Amino acid sequence: MIRPAMTVWRDVTEKLVTLANQADEVLRDETITEIEARLDDRDKLQSLIAAPFTAEEEAFGKELVLLEEEVQKKLDLFRKQIRLDISDTQSKKGNMKNYLNPYSNVARDGTFYDTKQ
Fold it and tell me: Engineered SS bond to 53: which of 57, 86, 113, 115, CB 3.0-4.6 Å?
């Protein structure tokens, strides 16, 4: 007999995998909110899953460990994608600033200083 907390853990973990696979940038905020909610659910369930385990629960636990590794990989990829998008946005902002004022980053070594600028 497998504890209900373990089966709920598996269901929540599978939901995390599907959420982490979503690549839609428009719904990213909602996806992040959902991921945080599922992680909170798993934190609450973790206290209910403790030793001693039956043989059936041991086998089920090995499946959960494999599923957990998959979740970690998917969430890491999701986080890296967010970081890449943030860095791209910052570089675009910097490029736009340089385009609008191309002489803002010119080093002034004292040989010529235009006070009218």
Answer: 57
Residue 18 has pLDDT above 70, yes or no: yes
> Cα(2)–Cα(113) distance, rounded to whole angstroms?
78
User: What is the arithmetic mean of pLDDT over 44-50?
Assistant: 88
Burial class (CB in 10 A: 0-12, 13-18, 19+), 20: buried
Compute the distance between CA of residue 79 and CA of residue 49 in angstroms, rounded to an integer. 28
Which pLDDT belongs to residue 79? 93
**Residues with Cβ within 8 Å of residue 63, at least 6 apart in sequence:** 10
Q: Kindly write down the DSSP assignment for every residue of 38-96, as one continuous string.
A: HHHHHHHHHTT--S---HHHHHHHHHHHHHHHHHHHHHHHHHHHHHHHHHHHHHHHHHH
Identity of the residue numbered 77: L
- Please choose, from the candidates 88, 61, 67, 52, the residue with its C-alpha nearest in 3D space to the C-alpha of residue 18: 67
Q: Is the pTM of this model over 0.70?
A: yes
Indicate the residue type of 2. I
SS3 at position 24: coil
